[in-house]
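pasting for ref
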Amino acid sequence: MKIAGASSPVTICLLGRFRVVKAGAPVTVRPGGKTEALLCHLALQEHYRAPREWLLEAVWPESDTSHATQALNSLVHATRKSFGDALAGAAPVVYTDGGYQLNTEAGVAVDIGEFDTLVDRAERGFRHGDVPAAVQCALHAISMYQGDLCAVDGVRALVERERLRAVYLSLLGQVADHYFREKDYSNALRYSLLLLRHDPCREDAHRLVMRCYVRFGQRAQAFRQYRTCERMLESEFDARPEPLTEALYDQVRTAPGTI
């Protein structure tokens, strides 16, 4: 699997656990420390820029302004010592117009930005009929999604976490549907099951899994998948499967050759 950020000199990774990738290799950063907090907060800001006062409060909430400012200056200097060699000596964090930001011009990237770029390319490809390129971009984005957004403090981070998760699940569905249309039932099943691992109540994914099992000649597995769907919906929502799902179950039972 390709390492997220391998194409950038320095990449801040927030999908899954926090990571920093420098020159294609992961760098050790103390978990839960101030470096992680600083880089996370900057990576989540629009255009990766944060006002000084906001950043001081976010990273050093218990310190007075003078001590927090000194600590921030020291931390910014330390990041340059740690990552500047991959940026031709440039600072990974810079101060301009009263705020701090990641030095994207020098080559600092954020995996969320790379993920979104790949998703945009995939969506354009699907829209314009360039399906092979769209699928490759989608698969690359899926491989980058190492887990939900690791930084969840604050409303903005929570909203971003849910947005990214929804985009990821949509990609899985698109890729699974593509493989089914191409009669690649192994991959269609693989990505449908991956989607269900993250969202066990997605009926469209349950239906696609059932169809894949029927194409494999495994009707008993298709029936079991329906029962799994039925149990999940009852447990989570006290609800029955959608008419489409029940109709597919009847089709599996009475006319599997038409699926």
